[in-house]
Amino acid sequence: MRAKTGRYSVYIRPTTYVLDLVVINLFSICMLGSEFASIYFSVFISLSWVIIALNIDFYEVYRFTKVVAILNKLARQLFLFTLVCFAFAGIYSKEVPAKEVLTYTLSSGCIVATVKLLIYYSLRRYRAIYGGNFRNVVLVGQPKNVQALADFFNDNPDYGYDLIRVFNLESDKKQQIDECLSFVQSNKIDEIYCALVDLSPTQVETFIDFADNNLKILKFLPDERNILGNNTKLDYYGYIPIISLRDIPLDDPINRTAKRIFDILFSIVIIIGFLSWLTPLLALIIKLESKGPVFFKQRRNGLDYKEFNCFKFRSMTLNEIADIEQVTKNDPRITRIGKFLRKSSIDELPQFFNVLLGDMSVVGPRPHMVSHTEMYARKIDKFMVRHFIKPGITGLAQTNGFRGEVENEKDIIYRVKYDIFYLENWSLLLDIKIIVMTVVNAVRGDEKAY
């Protein structure tokens, strides 16, 4: 399971966004006066600030980011923000002295810079003194290839990495690699760093498969060979280049917040617009046809492999194997109203309550019942990667013909491939496209909907 060591720091970036917007708006009111600092100016500078920040990665500051890189971001952000403020002043009907605008942007920029650097240094001091916000790591490779990174981790506790062990690959590589994988599994290790020059392509694949199937973060110290895919990400710890195996867009707090807001708004529309009147009607029909509750809940695995109760309208008669055996075509357990609910996917609508509760997203990998998750995790390579993000009511795999019953190994393999593509290439536009495709498929009818 993916460890949560230090993960609370992801809340810092959204908080910084809010603080910066408060600063630039408050300073505009105090320094420019009511004649210029109108509601239009407030909206304009807020949008401009966010757009500039997104384009220059102003808030992409990590524990290993150098101060000079932060100062460079600050300078670019302030310069571009000053330009847009002058542009607004240039088209404004009333004259505003250029000196006042420049004083405003410089003053607010200084406060923003102070807050940004204060947070950065406070976190580093917190890690160094109190030992908090740490991530446990191991190194794999020959000493000559990993010693520099080992020294970096040991000499810079303020970066928040606790080097637990180094696995020396000078002799008996296979034994050391096996021992490393066993050690990572049995201890709370967050990240694995491997020297690529010491690993064969097969051994690299072994580490990639292990990390994917056990929800561990894997990074590489690169060499001259270019053997990684296009989804890798290059960072620097000091002056040491580090390659991250997978860049997941939803790891970014801004993307995650945008998706969460979309999920909440979309769910509210469905719940108020459909479930508010549909639920009493279906409840009556379901109750009249068979004994049992209106809703069916089942334990499933979600984000970081955590279990949650997944809600559905009950479409089967009460049976003891509902949590063990998947529904098949012409399954005798399905009721008459259940056939309609499943064919039209209406039985899935209560999962919008799961979305509001935060257990699911509108779009994401479909969650499996716990017993099936454990089975597929043992049999299907990279199956566990799906749990890096929240499960969804619908997903890319489901809109491409891989929904419902898993009839053979091909079904689940392709489902995993689509899910991994989704988590590596997420965007709100992709979510909207998948939702539209889901509605179209529901209207047309899906041969695997039973």
Task: Describe the protein in words.
The protein is 52% helix and 12% strand. The model is unreliable at 1-8 and 224-228 (pLDDT under 50). The chain folds into 3 domains: 7-130, no CATH class; 135-247, 3-Layer(aba) Sandwich (Rossmann fold), CATH 3.40.50.150; 253-444, no CATH class. The protein has helices spanning 12-32, 39-56, 67-91, 98-130, 143-155, 173-186, 201-214, 253-289, 336-344, 351-357, 370-379, 409-424, 428-444; strands at residues 135-140, 161-167, 191-195, 217-221, 233-237, 240-244, 295-301, 307-313, 361-363, 392-394. The strands form 3 sheets. A 6-stranded mixed β-sheet has the order 2-1-3-4-6-5, with helices on both faces. A two-stranded antiparallel sheet has the order 7-8. The longest helix is centred in the middle third of the chain and has 37 residues, at 253-289. Helix 5 (143-155) links the parallel strand 1 and strand 2. Helix 1 runs antiparallel to helix 4, helix 2 packs antiparallel against helix 3 (67-91) and helix 3 packs antiparallel against helix 4 (98-130). The protein is flat, with a radius of gyration of 26 Å. It has 450 residues and is an alpha/beta fold. It is found in: Membrane. The chain crosses the membrane at residues 12-34, 40-62, 74-92, 104-123, 264-286. This is Undecaprenyl-phosphate glucose phosphotransferase. Belongs to the bacterial sugar transferase family. One of its GO terms (molecular function) is phosphotransferase activity, for other substituted phosphate groups.
Task: Please supply descriptive tags for the structure shown above.
alpha/beta, six-stranded mixed sheet, two-stranded antiparallel ribbon, 13 helices, 10 strands, 52% helix
